[in-house]
Fold these 2 entries.
Entry 1:
Amino acid sequence: MTASNSEGNSSRKSSSDTTGGHAAAADVESTIRTLEDTRYEAVIAGDIEAFAALAHPELAYTHSNAAVDTLDSYLEKLRSGFYVYHSIEHPVDRILVSGDTAVVVGEMHADLTARGVRKTLANRSLAVWVRERDHWLLLAYQPTVLPKGA
């Protein structure tokens, strides 16, 4: 289920209040869903350049162990095999859109090898996308470990 940010203070405009109304917001949400699918598919396939093309140069990529990577350090970890993703599921709860920013609220469940150790992750996640020159780029990612049984 997705939702644009149409609640709250009526003096603030959401994407559904701008020219094109709900259709424009739905188009942005569809685009962001596709980009999320594409970025996860890229890391599973080991297509580092495809991931890099989706990322903002100032990317802040936080991991569930609280380590933070820049775009360059994350790409180096992918290239070196520090992270090898075997499978990822990433259900989206909602997408909030405000102007040229989209926030994806959902989960990320992954089977990966990190630093040579096979792991299974179960996280809530938050991804921030920004639109620059008609392109959406991943600016930030933040997972939070789900408690056991959640």
Entry 2:
Amino acid sequence: MTNLLHKVFKQFILIEGVDEMTPKKILNERGISLVEVVASIVILAIILISIVNLLPQMGLKNNQNEDKQVAVNLASKELAYWQSTLKDDFNSLLANPNATFSFIKSGDTLTSDSNTITISTATTKSMTSKYHSKIIITKKPDLNSLPTKANQISIFIYKNNNILVTENYGYVFY
């Protein structure tokens, strides 16, 4: 029985490629060549340069997103400011847009046509900032029922170089 087991074990070892007498031959003992090292360095350099080129673009996009977020918050404040400011003087503004109003400051312009009243400001009214705004008010009310009427008001926020950053819409109730 021991002899039989020894033969089976020896046959198993021979099938697996291991002989008791000869050492197993190790293939490919060369290691890494200089060409492989240089190729891997070139690939890594290309990847790193691509990543480094993305960093300034990401910084620019972050600044644009920050400007946008500040302007969105500012547009909401501007809308609330103009809704509360225009509430008391709105009938007189609609009747005579060329009159003098307390909410039109130095540097602001008020223009009117048959459908809208436009107020362009040198700076935002709700807070001092690097932005300026344009307010467009429709003359015809969207809601024309007694005792309340509602005219649409559009707030456009621009950067100093007249680039539209954001806009907001609401109503003036009077």
